[in-house]
Write a structure and sequence with these properties.
The protein starts with a helix and ends in a 12-residue tail after the last strand. The N terminus is likely disordered. The protein has twelve helices and 16 strands. The longest helix has 20 residues. The protein is globular. The strands form three sheets. The chain has a seven-stranded mixed sheet with strand order 7-6-8-9-10-15-16, sandwiched between helices. The protein has a five-stranded parallel sheet with strand order 2-1-3-4-5, with helices on both faces. A four-stranded mixed sheet has the order 12-13-11-14, with no helix packed on it. Helix content is about 40%, strand content about 20%. It has two domains: about 190 residues, Rossmann fold, CATH 3.40.50; about 160 residues, Response regulator (Rossmann fold), CATH 3.40.50.
């Protein structure tokens, strides 16, 4: 009898031990933080990125959550307004992460911040708290800061600039062989300035036989574009590479008023937003081209469905915007970082991200493994040129590339569709 009692006690102790074992400590939630500009000049970008992130989180949970953690759902624990001031933004992120730490809350990733000029003081905050931080930013030097927790999901400016230079080269060779005079106009902030410099380097590398007859920088917040257009017109520029944000509308409006009509080539920003179409009308945007990181219309198998759902949620938008896409993809990339880490620990997630590889595949194969890589057209919606993602030690995707889009009439709807790289899209460039 005593032997039976001892066996029962031993079994009870064993059950108690097993029930407290970490093997069963599967989290109910995986917590992300969203940090972006939600007030100030860049709030329109931050809001669109948030919409994309929220939609991605819903899709992740509907499709089984984090499967390596027993189907744990993803949740945005806190939305942080970085304002549109980098110092205030850094302070806001610091406060949010300190609050999480004091409450014992584990934040597995921060996704997805935008605006290159905001990132300098903010990246070190994520580094200090050792939380993976995703950025949809182009400025080249951001991934040269030595950070281990920063991951860029947009192409570096070199790749956007290559798309611009490719277009100029194509125009010269096939469409406007007599064109000789090119000008640059750009907002004097981090991303536009860097992109302009990179485009000039590509033109020099290609040895395109054109003269750069004007380089016109203008300050953030500019509202009177008359001096800018006066300089461009006086230069005789036949093609103008214009890179900036909402103020590009003022520039084009002023050019229209004085009947200055060069061939405009954009660099992301406002050139691909629904407001651009709303302001200028279908005929005012038709044929305009723009270099960018990604687009809603290309051969990604989930593109049409995600874009249509975004529009249904936000009826003002006839297609998902560039930063809606990066918000969507950023959350999916973070999801696979946690999936691969099999842990909510942000340090382990960071390590997993540096070893992560994602490849394109059919929508129905989302999450499957192929030669050691995750299949995810959702994570790669933002990575149009390569169909692959793998971060290097700096946090750049080694397969990154830019693309070129053009405003075209598709089924009676004017929209910017991807026309290059041609192998990845059914749309073709219409002669400017």
């Amino acid at each position: 009898m005593r032997k039976i009692v001892l066996i029962l006690v031993s079994l009870l102790l064993l059950v108690g031990f097993v029930s407290s074992s970490p093997v069963h400590a599967v989290p109910d939630k995986v917590l992300f933080m969203y940090a972006n500009c939600l007030s100030g000049n860049y709030s329109w970008l931050g809001q669109r990125e948030l919409w994309g992130t929220e939609m991605a989180v819903e899709h992740i949970n509907k499709m089984g959550g984090i499967k390596s953690l027993g189907g744990a759902e993803v949740e945005i624990w806190k939305v942080v307004d970085l304002t549109s001031d980098s110092k205030m933004g850094a302070a806001a992120l610091e406060a949010a992460l300190a609050s999480a730490q004091s409450k014992g809350v584990t934040i597995s990733a921060i996704c997805t911040a935008t605006v290159s000029g905001m990132m300098g003081p903010i990246i070190p905050v994520a580094e200090k708290y050792r939380v993976p931080f995703f950025g949809s930013v182009g400025k080249s030097g951001l991934t040269d800061m030595g950070a281990k927790y920063f991951f860029r999901i947009f192409p570096r400016n070199e790749y956007w600039a290559k798309a611009q230079a490719d277009f100029v080269k194509l125009v010269k060779e096939k469409h406007m062989p007599g064109f000789k005079k090119l000008a640059f106009a750009y907002e004097e902030t981090a991303w536009p300035t860097d992109l302009t410099m990179q485009a000039k380097k590509w033109l020099e590398k290609y040895q395109v036989p054109v003269d750069i007859v004007a380089e016109v920088g203008y300050p953030k917040g500019m509202v009177d574009a008359t001096p800018i257009i006066a300089k461009l017109r006086a230069s005789g520029a036949e093609v103008v590479v214009l890179t900036g944000y909402a103020e590009t509308l003022y520039i084009l409006r002023t050019a229209d008023a004085i009947k200055y009509k060069p061939l405009w080539l954009g660099g992301g920003g406002f050139f691909v937003q629904p407001e651009f179409l709303e302001e200028r009308g279908p005929e005012g945007v038709k044929g305009i081209c723009c270099a960018m990181s990604c687009n809603h219309a290309w051969d990604n198998p989930i593109a049409k469905g995600v874009s249509a759902e975004f529009s249904k949620r936000h009826p003002k938008f006839p297609f998902i915007t560039e930063h809606g896409i990066s918000g969507y993809s950023g959350a999916w990339i973070a999801k696979y970082g946690v999936e691969a880490a099999k842990s909510t620990d942000p340090v382990k997630v960071k390590d997993a991200l540096h070893n992560l590889e994602i490849v394109m595949g059919p929508a129905e194969e989302e999450g499957k493994m192929k030669d050691g890589a995750y299949v995810s057209p959702r994570a790669l919606y933002v990575c149009s040129g390569s169909g692959r993602l793998k971060f290097n030690e700096k946090g750049d995707n080694i397969y990154m590339s830019g693309c070129l889009v053009q405003w075209q009439d598709i089924n009676n709807q004017m929209q910017p569709v991807m026309v290059s790289p041609e192998k990845l899209t059914p749309y073709r460039l219409i002669k400017p």
